[in-house]
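User: Hey, quick favor. My workstation is busy. Could you predict this chain's structure for me?
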Amino acid sequence: MTHILITGASGLLGLNLALYAASHENVFGTVFSHELKNVPFQIIQADLQDSREIHDCVDEADPEVIINCAAMANLEACEKEPETAELLNIALPIVLAEVAQKRKIKLVQISTDAVFDGQRGNYVEEDQPNPLSVYARTKWESEKAVTIANPDSLIVRVNFYGYSLLGKRSLAEFFLYNLAAGTRVFGFSDVNFCPLLAQDLAPILFGMIKKDLKGIYHVVSPESLSKYDFGVRIAHLFDLNENLVEAVDVSKGGLLARRSPNLSLRIDKLIRDLGQKPPGQDAGLLKFHQLYEEDYPEKLKAFLSSD
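Assistant: No problem, here it is.
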C-alpha cells in the first residue's frame, strides 16, 4: 500500500480525501485545531506554521505522496490576517515542495479557481491569473513557488463542496442548513462557478496521481452556474423553500474580500490526460443529497473529539 500524507485532514477536502483513500492506501493525516477520533487513518497532530513540525510529519509518515490540503481558505479571514494567510498558503507549500523534491515524494498542491479575476470566464491553464483577494494572491504565489521548488508537482485548481465536521465549510452546507432552518439567505446571481463535490473530486485526484500527472490542471465540474442557481437547486433537491434564496449582486453581500464574477474553467487538459470527465452539476448535487440521506454528515460529526 502507498503511504500518503494528507495535510489539513480535519478540513472539508482533506477529511473526505483521507476517508476515500483509507480503504486502499496507508493514510496519515495532519490535524491542528480539530482533534479527530476513530477515523480509519493515522493522525499526526502538528502546527504546520512551524517548519520543523512539517519536517517531523514527513519523517513520521514517510510518504510516497503528499497532498497539501492545509490552507487558510476563509477569504474574509485572509483579508484580516494576511500574515497568517502567507504562512499557511505560501510558506507551508514551499517547505513541502522542497522536502518532496529532496526525498523524491510526489507532491499535490491544492490551489483555487480564484486565482483569476473572473472578467471573462472559460479560463484555460495557460491564462494569466490576476487574483483579487489576499486568499487568491497567496494561492497564486504558492503555485509559482511550488513550481520553481519542485517542477514535478501536481497543482490542481479546484472549487469544491460537500460535508464537513461542523457543517460550516462549504456553500452547499450554508444553503442546506439555513434553508432547513427557514432562514432567508442571499444567493449571488452575478457570480458563476463550477463546483465539484468532494466525493467526485477524490477519485479524479487519485487517478491523476496514479498517472503521475505534473503541472497545473483545472479540476472542476464541466458545467458552471450562478451561486443563486446553486442555492435554488439545493432547495429543490431537499424539498425546501426556494423563495428563501434571494438573488442579489455580490456587491450587496457586505464582503471584505473581492469576488471574481465568472470563474468558469476549461477542463480540456484534464479530460485529455486523465481520460475522464468530471460529473455535471445535477449528478454532483444528487450525490450530495444521497449522502445526506445516508447520514453522512452525522458520521463526520462522530469523528470530532470532545476532549
